[in-house]
Amino acid sequence: MSDYHQAICPLCGKSSTSFWATARDIEYFTPTGTFDFRRCEACDVLFITPMLRDALQTIYPKNYYSFVGQKPSLVQRIKQALDRHAFRAVSAKIPGQDLAALDVGGGSGWLLDQLRLVDNRFTYTCVVDIDARAGTLAEAAGHGFALGSIESFSANRPFDLIFMLNLIEHVADPGSVLCKAADMLSPDGRLFLKTPNFDALDARLFRHRSWGGLHTPRHFVLFTRESLVELCRRSGLEVVSFNYTQGAPFWSVSTLDFLRRMGLVKVDAEHPAITHPLIPFLQAMFAAFDFIRRPFAKLSQMELVLRKA
Ligand SMILES: [Zn+2]
């Protein structure tokens, strides 16, 4: 346990790291206290300390959003339509028939549902997730389901498309997970990856206010464009495309916490941020704000399509 508390970079193992910010859980108010985020100068990543990698039951409460099956809101339906558009562009580049897709941390498989809508060549779809309840929903929707972490998952076939959306920042050793993804890809396969970017306006504005992109204490390692591309390269992956994309979830959670500290809204363990009635409004507003900035600004999320190098 003691090594988790040291200021050792989880990527390079060196201790030449500097303090970046202190943060706490402003979304689910899990009883976990405060954490430091440190920055490795060599790798240019942020990492959390202590890293509660053996306390997943505590840091992912029962009401954690990806575990809860809900009817999609208008904003979510718009997002799903945009997702379908993005998937169509990626899958069109993958040749062959009887394709296989894997969604790591994919919950009930809603993303794979969208993929099957746009490309009926995907005859095998599979979810890996730590939530058993999601497995029931995924299997009911016709997906394979493997209960557990990506680290413990063993693939019995290659995949033509692997999704890791907001996943890589949740794992203790992102390099080994990226290597594993590269191994699981078919020769023409693609890895679709999305993760926060801490070199962004909202990260600077809310740096000392538990910025939403830190998702404390559930995000273990955060990247910039350069540090992520470098880790992908070292993990045997080549960048096909890179885009900054809207960070509305981070802006919204950060703003809601600002209002909470002003005493204007109530957010606590029973009323987590994601369920607050202001959240859909904030999300729509900040999605529009980031959409306008997108041509000239580094936004707080990054979307990459990768293939085997
Ligand atoms: Zn490092």
Structure overview:
The protein has about 300 residues and is of the alpha/beta class. The chain has a seven-stranded mixed beta sheet with strand order 6-5-4-7-8-11-10, sandwiched between helices. The protein has a four-stranded antiparallel beta sheet with strand order 1-2-3-9, with no helix packed on it. It binds zinc ion (ZN). Zinc ion binds next to loops. The site of zinc ion has 7 residues, from loops.
Question: Would you spell out the secondary-structure blueprint of this structure?
Answer:
Elements: E1 17-24, E2 34-40, E3 45-49, H1 56-59, H2 74-91, E4 99-104, H3 110-118, E5 122-129, H4 132-140, E6 144-147, E7 159-165, H5 174-184, E8 185-196, H6 201-205, E9 221-222, H7 225-234, E10 237-245, H8 248-261, H9 279-293, E11 301-308
Parallel strand pairs: 4-5, 4-7, 5-6, 7-8
Antiparallel strand pairs: 1-2, 2-3, 3-9, 8-11, 10-11
Helix pairs in contact: 2-3, 8-9
Bound molecules: zinc ion.
pLDDT < 50 runs, ≥5 residues: none
Topology as a string of helices (H) and strands (E): EEEHHEHEHEEHEHEHEHHE
Helix content: 25-40%
As for the number of domains, it is: 1
CATH-defined topology: Rossmann fold
CATH homologous superfamily annotation = Vaccinia Virus protein VP39
How far apart are the first and last residues' alpha carbons, in Å?
36 Å
Largest sheet: 7 strands, mixed
* Structural class designation: alpha/beta
CATH class: Alpha Beta
User: What is the rounded Rg?
Assistant: 19 Å
State the CATH architecture. Answer: 3-Layer(aba) Sandwich
- As laid out across the biggest beta sheet, the strand order is 6-5-4-7-8-11-10
What are the distinct ligands in this entry?
zinc ion
Number of strands: 11
Shape: globular
Number of helices: 9
Oligomer: single chain
